[in-house]
Backbone:
């Protein structure tokens, strides 16, 4: 049986990170997580380095602006912190309207990947809903994008935003294949209202089917926002994933 890897995108706990980064990571480790996806690691580099040394948490991945940001600096810091995969969280919607624009965006990310290889850092991309809303001959923009990526560039499929955008996350995983190395897992109704998001297992997402479709992908808990206590939401999400992910 494949070993399941569970992580949490620390953007979910951003308010706590801003006030008590080491305490937040300690609480995450106490929940049972062994991995984290770092948020704003460039800003909090030294604080993360110290806090990670005090916990068993591994920074498997992190988000950073790569296409429109300072990619060389982000890659260098990622390597210093031991981040395995550095993920571009968003390429603006205007670059997803034509096949040519999508392929140009992929070429930009490929350029970052070439830079990162020598540093031992893998590059990835995380979607929202705009990458799947438009139809390109029966395929989504995300699929066109994936075809234009270098072989070692991976995808972090945000399953919630794929579903909200009108695509089946399960079908996307099937078509994108092994390139999907990370899953962003959040729940709630099919809405773009962030405060209506819910802990994993408490909304309308087909969570169990998604997990079965990608047994080898890292499971990353993330809520863009939440009306209640985000720590409780993260804990409830992890418990649900461990229970159904067998």
Residues:
């Amino acid at each position: 049986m494949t070993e399941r890897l569970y992580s949490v995108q620390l953007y979910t706990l951003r308010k706590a990170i801003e006030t008590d980064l080491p305490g937040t990571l300690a609480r995450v480790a106490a929940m049972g997580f062994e991995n984290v996806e770092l948020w704003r690691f460039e800003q909090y580099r030294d604080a993360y380095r110290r806090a990670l040394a005090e916990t068993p948490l591994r920074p498997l991945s992190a988000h950073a602006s790569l296409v429109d940001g300072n990619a060389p600096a982000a890659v260098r810091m990622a390597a210093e912190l031991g981040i395995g995969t550095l993920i571009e969280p968003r390429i603006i919607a205007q670059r997803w309207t034509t096949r040519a624009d999508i392929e140009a965006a992929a070429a930009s990310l490929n350029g970052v990947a070439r830079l990162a290889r020598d540093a031992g850092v893998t590059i990835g991309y995380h979607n929202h809903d705009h990458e799947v809303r438009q139809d390109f001959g029966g395929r989504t923009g995300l699929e066109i994008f994936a075809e234009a990526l270098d072989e070692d560039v991976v995808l972090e499929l945000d399953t919630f935003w794929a579903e909200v955008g009108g695509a089946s996350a399960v079908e996307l995983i099937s078509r994108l294949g092994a390139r999907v190395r990370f899953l962003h897992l959040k729940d709630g109704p099919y809405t773009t209202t962030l405060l209506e998001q819910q802990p994993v297992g408490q909304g309308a997402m087909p969570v169990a089917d998604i997990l079965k479709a990608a047994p080898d992908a890292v499971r990353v808990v993330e809520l863009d926002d939440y009306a209640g206590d985000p720590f409780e939401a993260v804990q409830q999400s992890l418990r649900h994933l461990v229970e159904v992910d067998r």
About this structure: The longest strand covers residues 58-63.
